[in-house]
Amino acid sequence: MERSVSELLRDAQQLSHQDLTDLVHELLHALEASDSADEATDAEGAEKAWTSQALQRLEEIEDGSVHSVDGPNALESVREQLAVHRR
Length: 87
Description:
Elements: H1 5-12, H2 17-63, H3 71-86
C-alpha cells in the first residue's frame, strides 16, 4: 500500500526531534546515493557521446570533407565575426 507524501509528512511531524533528525539524515543520504548513481550514468553517457563525436570529426578530417583550423586563426575569425555583428 503506497502512502502519499502528505500522509508521510503528517506522520513525520509526530516524531521526536531526534527521530525526525535521523529521518532527514537518512532521506538526504538516499538522495545523495541516487544522485551519485545518476551522475555516474550521465558521465558514462557523456564520455561515449564525446568519443563518438571525436571519432566522427577525425574521420571527416581524414576523408577531406572538412578541414581543421588552428586555434589562433579560429579565434581571429570569431573576433572578426563578432566585430561585424557589434557594429
